[in-house]
Amino acid sequence: MIYFVTHNKNKYIEAYKEFKENGIDISWIEMEYPEVQGNDNEFISRWSCESLVGQVNEPFFIDDTGLYIENLNGFPGPYASYVHDTLGNSLIVRLASGSRAYFKTVISFYYKNNIYQFSGILKGIIADVEHGGHAFGYDPIFVPENSNKTLSELSIEEKNKISHRGKAIKKFMAFLKDNSIV
Ligand code: ITT
Ligand code: NA
Question: Which of 7, 116, 152, 182 suits a disulfide with 32, CB 3.0-4.6 Å?
Answer without folding.
Answer: 7
